Amino acid sequence: MLVRNICLPDGREAQDLLVQGGRIAAIGPQLLSPESVEVVDGQGWLLSPPFVDAHFHMDATLSYGLPRVNASGTLLEGIALWGELKPHLTQEALVERALQYCDWAVAKGLLAVRSHVDVCDPRLLAVEALLHVRERVRPYLDLQLVAFPQDGVLRAPGAFDNLKRALDMGVDVVGGIPHFERTMQDGAASVKLLCELAAERGLPVDMHCDESDDPLSRHVETLAYETQRLGLQGRVTGSHLTSMHSMDNYYASKLIPLMAEAQLHAVANPLINITLQGRHDSYPKRRGMTRVPELLAAGVNVGFGHDCVLDPWYSMGSADMLEVASMGMHVAQMTSQAGMRACFDAVTVNNARVLGLPDYGLEVGKNADFVLLQSRSPIEAIRLRAQRLLVVRRGRIISASPPATARLSLPGRPERIDWTMPTF
Ligand SMILES: [Zn+2]
């Protein structure tokens, strides 16, 4: 396949991209077309590496309203509601909902997802279901699974054994939820226990960490410390980290360099953080998202996750990582040119680093996975939630959408509307 006349996220214009054997063979202006190659006219649109979601819950997705909706809108009622739903889950329903979500993801150009999977049910139904889904979708979507003890690895009876069984079955990453353990001490102990398990097994770590408005929830400090102590630098992710929003500024100024030193990845979940946090506040209401610009400035890799779509915690969502980027940009007030571009990176290259995807990116020799977006720049893609004109995996088109437009009948005005603008 040869895609002609595209622009790239780094600003290069009028480029071509050649695919051979499922990999990117060349990028440059006016490439020579080998014989019998399929030529696609990119019409100057933006060709981006695919979207990546660094934090999701595929075992809960599309279950909204089962068995009832979350009345208070809090994280804690969501966890309780998920507990009510768990006994009624069937493997067939879990698989079907996950596959349906993966279809949505592909259509939105989202081709890699790290999903947490609850391991507190001793039957490990959801683990089995998602391991099956991981294989089913492998030709078109990279699904990475995190063994997630939703009810607390120390607080829930049997959870540590279930978690280890899930890893034995092939789950990729060690999860945790220290702020949900019974005490601060237990939370810290759970971080130590789980990091030691990951070190022993040579696995990455991704914990739900400090997902609260409590400024004294400081498990990320322990996570950074254990990462250093066990030599896990670059393999550990702190997800949510919402307590950092409410922390004392002096303490945050000490913490952030420690996180950078441990090469911790940070994942914010803008849609969910702005929805679930601050629920115990009257006014002013805290936004609850972690300190994204400050972490980026300190050299921490920050990704944005979708976290939830139509589940006990969130009643919205459509697998659109541009919606996630847009919310992150607004909540963090990252409205400078560099800030808006960084929000696009947060749902593409930064998340790929969190997942450790080795052949990701628009470079010669990398996988020919990309999305043609109906926009002229990453910033415009966020503004327009740009249409995914083509989604390509290993050089094969796996989804296509018509350009977004509207027919106008207004005196003296053009017939078709065009929402794009000349690039800045
Ligand atoms: Zn989560």
Write up what this structure looks like.
The structure is a single chain. This protein is of the alpha/beta class and 424 residues long. The chain has helices at 75-85, 91-107, 125-137, 159-169, 184-201, 219-229, 243-246, 249-261, 270-276, 292-297, 321-331, 337-346, 349-355, 378-384; strands spanning 2-6, 15-20, 23-28, 39-41, 46-48, 51-56, 110-118, 142-148, 173-174, 205-209, 236-240, 265-268, 301-304, 370-373, 388-393, 396-400. The protein has a 4-stranded mixed sheet, with no helix packed on it. It has a 4-stranded antiparallel sheet with strand order 5-14-15-16, with no helix packed on it. A 4-stranded parallel sheet has the order 6-7-8-9. Strand 15 and strand 16 form a beta hairpin. Helix 2 runs parallel beside helix 3 and helix 12 packs across helix 14 (378-384). It is globular and about 65 Å long. Residues 55, 57, 116, 208, 307 line the site of zinc ion (ZN). Zinc ion binds at residues 55, 57, 116, 208, 307.
Keywords:
alpha/beta, globular, four-stranded antiparallel sheet, 16 strands, 14 helices, four-stranded mixed sheet, binds zinc ion, 424 residues
List cofactors, ions and other ligands: zinc ion
Number of helices: 14
Largest sheet: 4 strands, mixed
Radius of gyration: 22 Å
* Broad structural category: alpha/beta
Question: Strands, helices and their partners?
Answer:
Layout: E1 2-6, E2 15-20, E3 23-28, E4 39-41, E5 46-48, E6 51-56, H1 75-85, H2 91-107, E7 110-118, H3 125-137, E8 142-148, H4 159-169, E9 173-174, H5 184-201, E10 205-209, H6 219-229, E11 236-240, H7 243-246, H8 249-261, E12 265-268, H9 270-276, H10 292-297, E13 301-304, H11 321-331, H12 337-346, H13 349-355, E14 370-373, H14 378-384, E15 388-393, E16 396-400
Parallel strand pairs: 1-4, 6-7, 7-8, 8-9, 10-11, 11-12, 12-13
Antiparallel strand pairs: 1-2, 2-3, 5-14, 14-15, 15-16
Helix pairs in contact: 2-3, 5-6, 6-8, 11-12, 12-14
The chain binds zinc ion.
Zinc ion (ZN) binds at residues 55, 57, 116, 208, 307.
